[in-house]
Amino acid sequence: MKPIDLRSDTVTQPTEAMRAAMFAAPLGDDVFGDDPSVNALQEKIAAMLGFEAALFVPTGTQSNLCGVLSHCQRGDEYIVGQMQHCYRWEGGGAAVFGSVQPQPLNHQPDGSLALTDIEAAIKPDDPHFARTKLLALENTLGGQVLSQVYLDKATKLARSRGLATHLDGARLFNAAVAQARSNGSDARTEAHRIASIFDSVSVCFSKGLGTPAGSALCGSKDFIARARRVRKMAGGAMRQAGLLAAAATYALDHHVERLAQDHANARRLAEGLEGIEGLSFEVPETNILFVDLIGPARERSAELLQYLKGEGVLATGLYRLRFVTHLDVDEAGVERAVAAIRSFFRA
Ligand SMILES: *Cc1c(COP(=O)(O)O)cnc(C)c1O
């Protein structure tokens, strides 16, 4: 039996229809700017999210790097959350390649950075300090949706203090789908609302949207021209990249609204684990369920992950156990995962 792979939403295989779209894509040389499939994707995502321009890049990490290095110069700094990808999970790239210093802040329980903390972290113009140039936020953050009210306030504060704003929206569409569900709107309207208040946004196609690779960085024309230069330096300028861009265009047309199913499956998984002694978790807003082992079960995470693997259920746990739902996990898969976890605890 095929394992249920809940390690990440990056593990999805391209669907038959997506493969067909990739094979049918007209291709050119994107370094010469004449790959029609790349150009079409860039125009589409920029328009969807309310930007002048966009740049297709191989990974979300490179997208954030291009973003930070296009906002900041050597000796500048960006304000960022401790758990954000573009601080914690990218090998310190902005500092290593750009000599841009991060100013990490602790998150509030809802994932936000307190406005008072942001305000206090902005350095005066003084030779002692790095120049504070950018506020970087992430949405969703660890599967949590930052509220629109908060995003509006934080970007307004940044702007009033002369900072640029960048959103790591690797899972922007998960945030949009969840936000649409809670306010009765639709995902595309919400994605635009969330993204368009930032100066730049990075979106991943290889997470919940289910493509083999690729991300896009959106911003003004001038900003994207700078980012294109950084992408070249980072070795991210690809040639017949339309093969991948076509998968992303397909995903934007067909895989956005369906994220609601992944969110429903994550809730279903959480509901299935209710009542098991030794587990602590909150019902997820999107597609990521974090579970803490507590009490006598506290030291058993490696043992549990190993057991689940034997049962054909894959998960990870670096800080906490993490179960991620996606395109290749259906209701039956969730039920299998619940049964396997329950049998470990004999609950
Ligand atoms: C996955 C992820 C990235 C990086 O994407 P890669 O394509 O793996 O480099 C950036 N930010 C967030 C929030 C992510 O989840």
From TrEMBL:
Keywords: Lyase, Pyridoxal phosphate. It comes from the Bacteria. Residues 5-293 form the Aromatic amino acid beta-eliminating lyase/threonine aldolase domain. It is an enzyme of class 4 (lyase). Its cofactor is pyridoxal 5'-phosphate. InterPro entries: ArAA_b-elim_lyase/Thr_aldolase, Low_specificity_L-TA-like, PyrdxlP-dep_Trfase, PyrdxlP-dep_Trfase_major, PyrdxlP-dep_Trfase_small. Its EC number is 4.1.2.48. GO terms for molecular function: lyase activity. NCBIfam families: GntG_guanitoxin, PRK10534.1. Belongs to the threonine aldolase family. Homotetramer. This is Low-specificity L-threonine aldolase. The gene is ltaE.
